[in-house]
Structure formats: structure tokens, C-alpha cells
Amino acid sequence: MNRQQTAAVLAVLGLTGCGTSHESTQAPQLLPQLSQATGATLTACAELATRISYPDTTITAANPIAAGALAVAGKPVPAHCQVLGQMFRRTGADGKAYAIGFEMRLPVAWNGRFFYQANGGLDGSVVTATGPVGGGGPLDNALNQGFAVLSSDAGHARPTPDFGIDPQARLDYGYQAVGKLTPMAKAVIQTAYGKAPDRSYIGGCSNGGRHTMVAAARYADQYDGFLVGDPGFRLPLAAIANIAGGKTYASLANAPGDLGTGFTQAERTLVSNAVLAKCDALDGAADGLVQDTGACQAAFDLARDVPTCAGARDGTCLSAAQKTAIGALFAGAKTETGTKIYASFPWDAGFATDGWANWKFSSPMQRDAGAVGLIWSVPPENPATFDGTAFALNGSLDTMLARVGATSATYPESALSFMLPPEPANLAKLKNRGAKLLVYHGTSDPIFSSDDTTAWYEALRTTNGGDASNFARFFRIPGMNHCAGGPATDQFDALTPLVDWVEKGQAPDSLPASARGAGNAGGVSADVPSTWSAARTRPLCAYPKVAKYKGSGDVEQAANFSCQ
Questions:
Q1: What 3-state class would DSSP assign to 329?
Q2: Do 225 and 240 sit in the same domain of this protein?
Q3: DSSP secondary structure letter of residue 312
Q4: By three-state DSSP, how is residue 459 classified?
């Protein structure tokens, strides 16, 4: 990225002026090395229900869980204690009951580490606290590795957007639940084991990735390692951009109300194959993966490289109207008056999957409309009469954009404040205390663009004198859809390398990753092409490096690729 492009990125992300002049002019400095965690043994479980005492917190149960009651990839998870509770019980402005519900799982054989499991979507459910390690079809989790793990509902007990009527529930969802839960969880660990965690980690994908990026900016003193997956760190803007996409696909649809007929699977396969024809071999191997994402954007041109229909659409061409409209979406959706809403999306090979289609053709009227209308807008829509389809397909994008940035006496903090990390390219506190940030993003993610994360990382590099690799590393995953899936090697463990980086100083240059073909223990991905080995492996390379074929050897094996 050249100086002019970097300046544009900084302006788009609102990152100008971040960081100090000291950081922007100095080469990467030697940072503190954090010590390794040491473990302890949990001697009692049930009695924790009465022993744990923390302000504004109610413990509702402490249950011993036998070894093997949970499993990951067919392997039994060791014995542990499940602690259930709530924080800050209250009645909301909408008259409904609220609390921050949580679950902690405390291993009998504890490794001295705490993991905050940042959940995805709208939160609203206390899911099993196992701790994600990254990617699809995981073969391990943090709990199995010996971490004490916490998950929460982020302050509302239903995964529906109507909680957004309550101002405090908005803030808890945005960032305050993490701030409230973290010291409580550490206090529970102190009570359970007689010592606080030596090292603390937080991680998740999607909205969980957003939670983690927000924590990196707001709670850098509370965590030593941050594992960020496919982050929707500008989530309100991404949602409005996806609504803009919904409007576009509706306008192209052959069947009224069926957005998928605006860009059919046959047409998406056509475009994916055209991208591969131009970009697949840029890394030295024609293997169905676009490793050099940056070079591909220069090599592929939708108007030139996909046939234009002379007559009716039949799956072998795109109409001129499709090319214009879809090309504009990939370049970055705009409002009716021409204001760019969000980032561009890269051309890649993962567009023909069901997962990609669901986000593009169903989410605008469901997830996105509800979140924009009820959680982030000031004022919010009336939940009693709200119609997500009408809101998405008939509403004004300019109005949506204005309302997610608005405030009022009832809602004094806008969604662009409570949902986004403040000064996302200024992570000096995290950096200077020796904490580490590991970020990954699928290049075929249909809802949160890897271009957006790439632009953020470029801004972070600029803020840190051109190199942030001594505390933050970014891995793009070719072909991967949203957090998992797609024609990709999407099975990997990013948590173990993060721990080794934080506690041993071993910075990861690449992550080993596998495809999930037939027989995969973590779950088969239907998106793995039949022409691939079921167990294909690849290195995921730390940006800006890409995986390139060495020129000989089996293309199914990671050993025959190097990060360059």
C-alpha cells in the first residue's frame, strides 16, 4: 500500500492522529516479555456457590462436570466445575428484566490462564464456555487445554434485537459487559484456586471479534492476549452496507422477493471461476486458492473477465446491469446521495457457497434490519410494528447512516461510539505492557470485509512507524467465508500460537491450517472441492506475506509452500 493509499485508509477509518509522534517515528522497540502461567488444582466445586462473593453478582449454581461429559472433536474434555450466575439484575427502561448472565467453567487441573469467550451475533444466550481456538471444525478448545473460561449473554437474555430499546442494554452489548464481567471472573478464579490468573486471554469471531477489538482498545490492562476472528469492528456500518446489498440484489432479482435470483448460484460460480482463472496461479500453483489477494484485485476485472449476456441470463454470463450494480457493491456500498458506507470487498473464490448466499440474501431483512432499526438507531424503531423486510428494502440508507451516529437525552452514546473500538489504530497501552494481538479474517467473508481489517492493520502499521508485527499480527485466510466454511483450509488453532507469543516470545510467522474433507474429526465442510485432498494443508501467512508454491512437491501439502 503506497503513501497516498494509506492516507486514504486512515481518513476512511477515522484513524488520523492516532498514536504518538514517538511511536510513528521509531523502529519497533523491544517490548516487555510476560512470564508463563503456572497452574493450580480445584479442590471443591459445589461449595463455590456459597463461597463466591462479588458486588452486584448472584451465583445461581456450581455444578461438578465429570470428565467426558463434554467432548471436542470426539475427545473427552477433562473434569471441571460449571459456575452459573448473573450480574447487575435490574428492570430496564422498557419494563423488562435485565441482567448480565454468565457461565464459567473451571478445570480441576487448571493451567493458570483465564479465557473470556466473546460470543457472536446479537449475544443474548449464555452458551457453553469452552473457548474458541479459531476457524471451523475445531479440534481443540481452551477449556480442554486447561483454561478457566467464561461466556456471557452480554447483558440481555434473548437473542433478539428488541433489547436495544433499553439504553443500558445497548451499552452492555457494545462494551460494558466485558468491563463488568472481567474483574468478577478473575475474583471467582481467585476464590476457586487461591490465586488469580497469571495470564488472561479474550477471543471470538464475528461480533466476538468485535468484542475483542473493543477490549484491546478499552481494556488493554485486563488481558495479555487478544484473539480476533473476522471482526465486525465497524458492525453498524457493515450492516447498513449489507442492507444496501439487499436492495441491489432485490432490484436485480428475476423473482420478486427472492434476492438470490439477483445473483444466482450459477452466476456466483461463474464469477468465482473467473477470479480463479485470473488469480489462482499468482502464487505459483493452480490449486483453487487465491493466496495473493492483493495482486488478485489488480488482475481481475468483472467487466472484462466475465461474459456479458447478449440475451437472457442463463448462468453463463452476467447482464450489464448486474455487472454495474454488483461491481459497485464490491467497490464499497454507498447511500442514495453517494456517501460511502463501509469498505470494499475483495474478489475471491468463495462466492458460490450457501453460507455466502445466506448473509447476502437473507441477513439484510433479518439480522441487519433488526440491529440497525432497534439496537443502533436513535431513535429506535417501534418493536411492536417493526417490519424488517420493509425497513431494509424500502428504507433510506442515508437516514440509517445518520441515525446510527445520532444521540439523544435517552441514548447519549451513539452506536458508532459504543460499538466501535475508540482509536482502533492506537493500541499503545496494549503494546507497551507486552500484550499481543492475533487477528485472522477469511477473504471470502460476505458480511465483514477482510479489506476493512486489512485497512485497519495498515493504519496500525502506520501508527507504529510502519511495523506493528512486534505486538500485532494479521492472517488472511484465502477462500474462507464468515469465520468458517468456503473453499478454504479453515481448520486451525490460533490460540496456542498466541499463548506461545505472549508467554514465550515466539511470534507466529504462519499458522498451520487444514481443509475439512471427508472423515474430518472436527466436522466436514461441504464447501471443500472434490478435487482437493480431504486433508489438504496450507500455511496461513502473517500479512503482508502470502503463501507461495516452492515449485515442486505435492500441492496438497503445506510443506511445499512458504510465506513470502
A1: helix
A2: no
A3: S
A4: helix
Q: Which residues contact 189 (CB under 8 A, 6 or more apart)?
A: 106, 114, 148, 195, 196, 197
DSSP bridge partners of 148: 114
Residue 39, all three cell numbers: 497452574
Each residue's pLDDT tens digit, 340-366: 999 999 999 999 999 999 999 999 999
Whether the CB-CB separation of 415 and 355 falls below 8 Å is answered with: no
User: What would the pLDDT profile of 75-98 be if each residue is shown by its tens digit?
Assistant: 999 999 999 999 999 999 999 999
To 10 degrees, the CA torsion angle through 506, 205, 356, 561?
Answer: 10
Q: Indicate whether 70 and 87 sit together in one domain.
A: yes
Identify the pLDDT of residue 28. 56
Mean pLDDT of 532-548: 98
Q: How is 5-62 classified by DSSP, letter by letter?
A: HHHHHHHHHT-TT-S-HHHHHSPPPPPPPPPPP--EE---STTHHHH---TTEEEEEE
Q: Kindly give the interhelix angle for 207-218 and 177-193, rounded to the nearest 10 degrees.
A: 80
User: What would the grid cell of residue 471 be?
Assistant: 505486538
Shared domain check, 536 and 433:
yes
Cα separation, 193 vs 125, whole angstroms: 27
Can you tell me whether residue 83 is helix, strand or coil?
strand
d(C-alpha 360, C-alpha 212), whole Å = 25
Measured CA to CA, the distance from residue 68 to residue 82 in angstroms comes to 14
pLDDT at 507: 98
Q: How many domains does one find in the chain?
A: 3
pLDDT at 3 over 90: no
- Cell numbers that stand for 320 in this block: 450489464
Query: What residue type is assigned to position 103 of the chain?
Result: E
Q: Provide the whole-model pTM.
A: 0.95
Q: Is the pLDDT of residue 13 over 80?
A: no
Q: Percent helix, strand and coil across the chain, each rounded to 5?
A: 35, 15, 45
Q: Which three cell numbers stand for residue 366?
A: 433479518
Catalytic residues: 206, 445, 482
Q: How far apart are CA 222 and CA 211, in angstroms?
A: 14
Contact 9, 460 (CB under 8 A): no
Whether the bond between 64 and the residue before it is cis, its omega within 30 degrees of 0, is no
Q: Which residue in 312, 342, 344 sits closest to 327, CA to CA? A: 344
Q: Which helix (H) or strand (E) holds 375?
A: none
Q: Which residue has the cell 489462482?
A: 280
On whether residue 20 sits in a domain, the answer given is no
Q: Is residue 275 part of a domain?
A: yes
Judge whether 229 and 209 are in contact, CB under 8 Å. yes
Write the secondary structure of 119-153 as one string of H (helix), E (strand) and C (coil).
CCCCCCCCCCCCCCCCECCCCCCCCCCCCEEEEEC
Determine the average pLDDT of the residues in 140-148: 98
Q: pLDDT > 90: what percent of the chain?
A: 94
Nearest to residue 75, comparing CAs of 130, 19, 144, 17? 144
Q: State which residues form the domain around 66.
A: 31-197
In terms of C-beta density within 10 A (0-12 exposed, 13-18 middle, 19 or more buried), how is residue 292 classed? buried
Which one, of 6, 25, 26, lies nearest residue 16 by Cα?
6
* Residues 522 and 407 occupy one common structural domain: no
Tell whether 189 and 246 lie within a shared domain.
no
Name the nearest CA neighbour of 101 among 41, 28, 174, 150.
150
Residues near 402 by beta carbon (within 8 Å), at least 6 away in sequence: none
